[in-house]
Amino acid sequence: MDQKKFYLTTPIYYPSDKLHIGHTYCTVASDAIARYHRLRGEDVMFLTGTDEHGQKIEDKAKEAGVTPKAYVDRIVEGPGGVRDLWKLMNISNDRFIRTTDDYHVSAIQKIFKKMYDNGDIYKGTYKGKYCKPCESFWTESQLVDGKCPDCGRPVVDAEEEAYFFRLSKYADKIQHLLEDTDFLQPRSRVNEMVNNFIKPGLEDLCVSRTSFTWGVPVDFDPGHVVYVWVDALSNYITALGYMNDRYHDYAHYWPADVHIVGKEIVRFHSIIWPAMLMSLGEPLPKHVFGHGWLLLDGGKMSKSKGNVVDPYILAEHFGVDALRFFLLRTFPFGTDGNFSNELLIQTINTDLANDLGNLVSRTTAMVGKYFGGTLPDGCGAAAADKALAGRCQEKGCVGVIPEPGDIACDVELIALAATLRGRYEEAMDAYAPHKALDEVFKVIQRANKYIDENTPWTLAKDMEQNGARLAHVLYNLLEATRVCAILLTPFIPDSCGKIFAQIGACEGCRTWDSAAAWGSLGDTAAVTKGENLFPRVDVDKALEELEQAAGRSAAPAVEVEPQRTETVDFDTFCRSDFRAVKVKACENVKKSSKLLRFTLDDGTGTDRQILSGIAMYYKPEELVGKTLVAIVNLPPRKMMGLESQGMLISAVHTENGEEKLHLIMVDDAIPAGAKLC
Ligand code: MSP
Predict the structure, then answer these.
(1) Lower CB count within 10 Å: N or C terminus of the chain?
(2) CA distance 142 to 149
């Protein structure tokens, strides 16, 4: 039978100054999935890389006084850069693509030309709104409070000759793809895409720019550069050799099994990317999985908010495996999760130090103490145990009916461990690494309970009478540990290597097959108590050290938008009616990840409703009772079917290239309706 292939990708990362724990989450999850498929013996291609073109990079390089290429080279290849971080985090990518690589650039030109030649790209005039930091074009109707619906920052008017991609032509096919197949996962993301983007009408997409040069030039029309998302998305195929000679495995690996991406870029991957592939006449990836965000204090982590968590600091403090484990154990992959140092330490202490660490150290120590490191021949998986394991696996369940002579705790432990692989596999195949880990830890916890039930130290008091039972108990513990270590390898590879060494697991009993073969470990395997794999963390000390370390990291560079030079006359200015308003109620708008719905007291006696695209910055409950500033004489606008009667005023700036937003809050002594002038 042909070896099964598995091609998975992470997004290619923007080379911002430093990647944070949110980016690390995305890559570590993809890595665990890649390692899982390798463990199963599949032919895996795991791709990651960097997305290096666009106006933002051009601007930053200019500020830094270097060429854009020199700028990205430093951040991608330099010390502490993207590649370094993935090396540190033990990321096992098979390939790394940079969109500035020559082969990719020339392939993009060919891809663009192919879509132009087949009539899907045409020349027109672009009039609309552009969000510089997001490098996204928006139509007026897509803006939220007149600002970028993705990041809430101001957009600028843009009008220029440009090429367009006939996205509208593919609307029906994309809707069918999303609604009637399992292409986009988790399923909960489908409605958001269909309702927010497809049903309002897919417009053709502007796919070239003339206002900057740092991009892939359209070779048949100098002056135009290819829209950065067309350039970036194509990486998934150019990295395999599509339209280039650098690689030759396009036919082998494409279509991808899965693109793992964060939720805010699902739109690009589930609408634009399939449409591009349809236009190129190429097969579509099998799945796009949109994971949630790691939040800090309820908001998206971003450098500008000063709430970025540095993976280097955490890895240095707790170890790479502990950090990898924490990310995937704690947060359900498809939804958002709140990061905190406390939670990290608690997970390390509970799961790694107490449960896993203790199981390994207690078991190996007892084999050393009572048997000099080698259990006696014949202690192991007696025929009855193997038969029991076989019975359990056949039934695929853990509720086995014991047979006469079975010892209840042996039955339970063996039944649970021998069937673990099936439950783990189901979870991993559903992109639910947190569930897979949960299953593994049920076995680890059962094994620890088995120690307490059998009290080996009591058995050891009379070796003549109980020696054989003691050896069998310890063997079962080693076996349960072995099965768990195999399945933990994709998550904490280095630690599992050490566990295998400590329990004397040979190469053949570290494999996927042997994870479902109870009794694979030799009876007389050489067991050695090694280093304590996961020392307990002293919570107070660690928190204090982390605080100090965070303080040591350089203060973020603050940037504000350049002030406008054109003037508005005083009368025009005075026509804008700014008022103090009090928040009576605030809630998330259903089906929108961005919008908050405010009910405001504006002093008129009638409630005013304003919608604001700031859900990623504030929790609704923290705003109730605050006094804010609103402009109240804008024409009402509908968003997600709700009317917004004005706009709330906030301050925005960027720090280290990322946005920061604060609602303007004024003294609560100011009454609702007071005019600001
Ligand atoms: N360059 C684009 C992707 C192009 S793919 C053809 C991009 N880059 S990014 O660096 O901004 O983000 C890369 C990935 O990191 C995204 O999947 C994004 O969701 C993820 N994360 C960034 N911050 C995150 C959190 N706070 N939490 C979880 N993932 C987050 O988008």
Answers:
(1) N
(2) 7
210 class by beta-carbon count within 10 Å (0-12 exposed, 13-18 middle, 19+ buried): middle
Q: What is the DSSP letter of 199?
A: T
| pLDDT value for 221 | 96
Q: What is the pLDDT of residues 340-351, one digit of tens each?
A: 999 999 999 999
Rounded distance between C-alpha atoms, residue 314 and residue 345, angstroms: 10
Measured CA to CA, the distance from residue 33 to residue 425 in angstroms comes to: 11
Domains located in the chain, CATH noted: 5-309 (3.40.50.620), 356-516 (1.10.730.10), 570-663 (2.40.50.140)
Please choose, from the candidates 416, 193, 414, the residue with its C-alpha nearest in 3D space to the C-alpha of residue 290: 193
Residue 126's SS3 state is strand
Spatial distance between the Cα atoms of 526 and 373, rounded to a whole number of angstroms: 6
Residue nearest to atom 18 of ligand 1 (CA): 262
Task: Supply φ then ψ for residue 24, to 5 degrees.
Answer: -65, -40
- Block residue for tokens 């007892």: 366
Quickly tell me which residue has 């949109």 as its tokens: 290
Instruction: Please report the pLDDT score of residue 554 as a whole number.
Output: 41
End-to-end CA distance of the chain: 77
Residue 398 CA to residue 412 CA, distance in Å, equals 7
Nearest to 61 by CA among 213, 170, 180: 213
Considering only CA atoms, which residue is closest to atom 26 of ligand 1? 22
Give Cα 322 distance to the centre of its chain.
Answer: 17
What's the pLDDT score for residue 148?
85
Q: Which residues of the chain have pLDDT under 50?
A: 554-557
Q: What per-residue confidence (pLDDT) applies to 552?
A: 61
Q: Which residue type sits at 295? A: L
Q: What does the buried/exposed string (b/e) look like for 378-389 if buried means 16 or more CB atoms within 10 Å of the residue's CB? A: ebbbeeebbebb
Partners of 126 in the beta sheet?
160
DSSP 354-378: IIIIHHHHHHHHHHHHHHTTBPPTT
Ligand 1 center–CA 459 separation, angstroms: 55
Cα–Cα nearest to 90, from 499, 494, 533, 510 = 494
Q: Which residue is closest in CA terms to ligand 1's atom 16?
A: 262
